[in-house]
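Internal ticket - ligand job 456, protoporphyrin IX containing FE:
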Amino acid sequence: MSVGLKSVPRAPGRLPLLGHAVPLARSPLKFVSSLRDTGDLVRVDIGTMPVFFVNSFGLAHDVMVGKSASFEKGRFFDRLRSLVGNGLATADAHTHRRHRRLMQPMFHRERIAGYAQLMADHAQQITASWRPGTRLEVEQVMGEFVVSTVAASMFSSDIGAPARDCVQRNVPVIIENLLLRTVSPKLLDHVPIPANRRFDAATRELHDVLDKVIADARAAGDAYAPDAPDVLSTLLDARDADTGQPLSDAEVRDELGTILFAGTEATASTLAWVLHEIARQPDIEARLVAEIGQVVGDGPISFEHVRQLPLMQRVLDETVRLHGVTLLMRRATKPVELGGYNLTPGTEVAFSLYALHRDPRAYPDPERFDPDRWLPENSGDRPRSVFLPFGAGNRKCIGDAFAWTAIIIALATILPRWQLRHVPGTSPKEATSAVPHPNHLPMTVMRREATVTSRA
Ligand code: HEM
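stdout (structure tokens):
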């Protein structure tokens, strides 16, 4: 028997008018992780707005998969839409269905294989200036690698060159300010503080350049011929299966923007966290270098190698488990039952992949970085449904294979030649954003002298 929303337990620490804004602002990751102690579905008040937090994989699965037809993207995505456009991540159900079909081909295996060379070239480029003793701001370097790689896969021809430059300049600025803009009331958008000015200038420049490149590419027609199809050419050539209509220029721009915002931060953050975690556990790093040596040898890594590195995959799975997406949201569009409660249309639902993946009910000793927990013999009866770093269902990440390939190629290029070590006395904190990325990760590079040959 299910009961109404009024019976849902409320998180402790609520203040009149402010709701749970104080613990949320002070320590958001700790707060969302603490909610599981109150129940599988818990009411949190953001100011006066109730949001119902899902704290079990079973219910998260219901929202994303089993009962997904009863949910749309939630309130933050409405706000995000007004900031970054109506692309795949923010689109309503109708637009989403149509665009997802059109965009899926650009993330197929053979396309990703086509991007592998440029990923390897960009990984070589970031390491080219490294010398023994070079100090890196790792979170920035990995951001530059990911943004330049994604931009190159989008705009591979000369016509796209201005967009590649513009993306590298502006996307980091936009991402840095996006979360704050998304959760702030709209009326604060026009307050002339530096953060608003930087955000507005960067968005404007990016829009203008994307619009120009799209117009130039359309005008060039068949002369817009990248060596192999890139993301821009695929979007321009896409035709709706039912109507035969192409995407409008604004739709193409919004999808390009969405890939940039949805794809870059989490990928760069994962790369940075891997380097942090393995520097703290040199035995794992040594096994990883040995595996790369055995599979890849001395030459550059190719796409074929990417799937032959089981320890690498376990290290990445463990990294995204520990450093997952902060918050996803949905809103009920019709009456729906969830965990024994009746949700009414308009109910806002949220869940944190970060918190779910640190649930001791699913992962013993959850705070420990332990790639070997993913060995088949250690997985016990843990179902795959408790590992959702890319979400699930029809809104699941479209770029997971792209992300893994870029990350693996970068690590297999860096690690056999370079050892990264923390600058003494430094230790990164989790900066609250769409993914909790390391706030500051200074590391020093040393040349890796001998190839480790023990078995991975
Ligand atoms: C480690 C890296 C990444 C992580 C952890 C990640 C995570 C996620 C998650 C959890 C979602 C689901 C959001 C929801 O259900 O509301 C998502 C959606 C999405 N991601 Fe990723 N992502 C990553 C990399 C990428 C890359 C590299 C791209 C593109 C090149 C990308 C593009 C997208 C897009 C377009 C969506 C929206 C999909 C839809 O609604 O159909 N992501 N991502």
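Auto-summary: Residues 249-280 form the longest helix (32 residues). The longest strand covers residues 41-46.
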